[in-house]
Amino acid sequence: MTPRLHQKYQMEVVKTLVDSGKYSNRYQVPRIEKIVVNMGVNTAAQKANKSALEEAIAELTLVTGQKPVTTKARHSISNFNVRRGQEIGCRVTLRGMRMFEFLDRLIGASLPSIRDFRGVPNRGFDGRGNYTLGISDQTIFPEIELDKIKRTQGMDITIVTTARNDQEAREMLKLLGMPFAAVR
Fold first, then answer.
1. Strand locations in 47-86, DSSP E?
2. Distance, CA of 143 to CA of 141 (rounded, Å)
3. Quick one: which of 11, 39, 49, 168 has the most CB atoms within 10 Å?
């Protein structure tokens, strides 16, 4: 069964963008290639908190529905007690139907549950049509049980698109339902 957001993209977003006159056919319309969810675990470097990385992996698995890979430090930083090759975080790359399901849950359930939410910032674009959103607390996702959380953990969500510039990506994401903040 295809996710609701994927059907919305195929039926409404593509048609709207082609009808706007910016694209001559539906294959020129930008699309989402992948979503990368990254969690850096700052306490993983400490010897007392070795379980922090396992907890982050378990929570990211719950949120995304896919097992994350661990990320390792590229350089040694003595001030932070980080050694080269030490596991310091985890990440998941979502593609296909899982990607659309995750984005649908993010837009429909998780973002509106943030206290005093006024929209996601417009400054998260990188100039090439990709959007990165930082979330400071993983408890906004309904899959995570608040009673089992030992520490709050943030994450970065990067939406990689085939758009040529930020305006094309912003227009596509807005048509998909991404709640951007009003420009002041």
1. 69-72
2. 6
3. 39
- What gap in Å lies between CA 15 and CA 24, rounded to an integer? 11
Instruction: Encode burial over 50-75: b for 16+ CB neighbours within 10 A, e otherwise.
Output: eebbebbbebbeebbebebeebebee
Per-residue pLDDT of the chain (184 residues; tens, 9 = 90+): 788 999 999 999 999 999 988 888 889 999 999 999 998 887 655 555 678 888 888 888 988 989 999 888 788 877 777 778 777 788 999 999 999 999 998 988 888 888 888 888 888 898 898 999 998 887 788 787 777 777 778 889 999 999 999 999 999 999 999 888 876 6
What's the whole-model pTM score? 0.86
Tokens encoding 159: 């939406």
Angle at the Cα of 136 from the Cα atoms of 112 and 80, rounded to 5 degrees:
170
Query: Which structural domains are found in the chain, ordered by start?
Result: 31-176 (3.30.1440.10)
Q: How far apart are CA 47 and CA 107, in angstroms?
A: 37
Instruction: Give the containing element (helix H, strand E) for 37.
Output: strand 32-40
